[in-house]
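hiii, so i know i said id send this last week but things got crazy w the move. better late than never?? heres the sequnce for the chain we talked about at the cafe, plus the structure i predicted for it. fair warning i was half asleep when i ran it
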Amino acid sequence: MTGPGGTAQPAAVERHTIDLVPDSERHGRPRDLFTMWFGTNIAPLPLVTGAMGVQVFHQSLWSGVLAVLVGQLLGGVFMALHSAQGPHLGVPQMIQSRAQFGTLGALLIVVVAAAMYVGFFASNIVLAGKSLHGLAPAVPVGAGILLGAAGSAVICLIGYRLIHTLNKIATVVLGLGIVTGIAVVVARGLPHDFFTRGEFTFAGWLATVSLSALWQLAFAPYVSDYSRYLPRTVRTASTFWATYWGSALGSMLPFLAGTVVALVSPNPDTVGGFHDAAGAFGPVLLILFLFSVINHNALNLYGAVLSMITIGQTFRSRWQPRLMARGAVSALVLACALAFALGLSSDFVARFVNLVLVLLVVLVPWTAINLIDFYLLHHGRYDFDALFAPDGGRYGRFNTIALGSYAIGIAVQIPFLATDLYTGPLAAHLGGADLSWLVGLIVTAPLYYLWSRARRTGDDTGHPVPAAATARDLPATPPAATDPLRPLSTEDVPG
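okay and structure toks below
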């Protein structure tokens, strides 16, 4: 189908999976990313996460609010920098990771990403089941989980355009809904100790900052998947700021609502507490949350499916997966997530806390390596043929520099970890404050940059040229300045 100017119009049902999106099918504007990330972040799971500052880490209102703001504003920087890669590259984030880790080396990261999104998908459909059960007590939580999962699967199968459209609607409907809900809770009266309950502790405050920042960092492995259809001509800064403010502001609302609800309602179930505290507006909130969970969870399923397809394509390089493949993989991921969700629904919060703290450890080194590689080593310029080559082309099967930096980035975090499963000696010395993610960023980023620069062997990517590389893997001349794959300049950098 073509438009008035002869340009191909995007299909209603997405046809692409992990392949390069051609210029003829690029569409949209950077501001679409604001509604994309604002709408998708107003959901029950960030509400639950925001409440943990009070429920788990016993912070006061003001220290909890400050921790949420610091975490969102800081974590959103990394998330938005990943988003800005999408229009320039036109491929999913996990495919791009092959340029840093090698074709086989990237599998480690892809498996982690797939597991993460299956975990988040399962957690969200538990909340969908509970929301539906709250609206209609005759519907068991298990049946609600199944219905929520089915709705997300339909959205995922249709793909990119529907996801963006639904989030434009969600920005208005859910935004107004949660603001109204908070206003109703406050208007109905606050407990006498609302402003005095809890207290600031450095360990608890930093843990709350970490949870808030992690919410943003958790989008990093797939955020550029939702900007990869934008035209190459859009400015990197425009993509960055639209994503940053959409995601940061959209996340702040439910996080802060969770903080308020945790202080108002004695109900440990934050969604149920919001329903109780909002009085007659409670059922409306549950309806909105049910819609938001189904909508938000489609992203987790979409990301998990692209990651699983990436794993399969690594071993079958000639495979060109399209709609049928996405449908089949979606069904497989859906079955695994349902089994997980039905098993954890009775002990959700405790398991979720442990999940996100573990994810923080493995995500931080990857995001540091990916951003350093894209912005400082490659300057946004990659060899797309090599990304899909069986031997990895110029990037090889394994990049020992990236894998070594990644392993060191994880190892240096261990002494600073503070979780229910393990508390490192340095974290214990600091009163239980979890500094692992900061240490991981501070160590991994310069280590990877300096190590890569030191090992340059003549190619223009900053990576060693593998012994198996041939002339076809290396361009004869660098691209001209007018090439759409030109290196990023200072004019492209957000600021």
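btw DSSP finds 19 helices and no strands in the chain. thought thatd interest u
miss u guys!!
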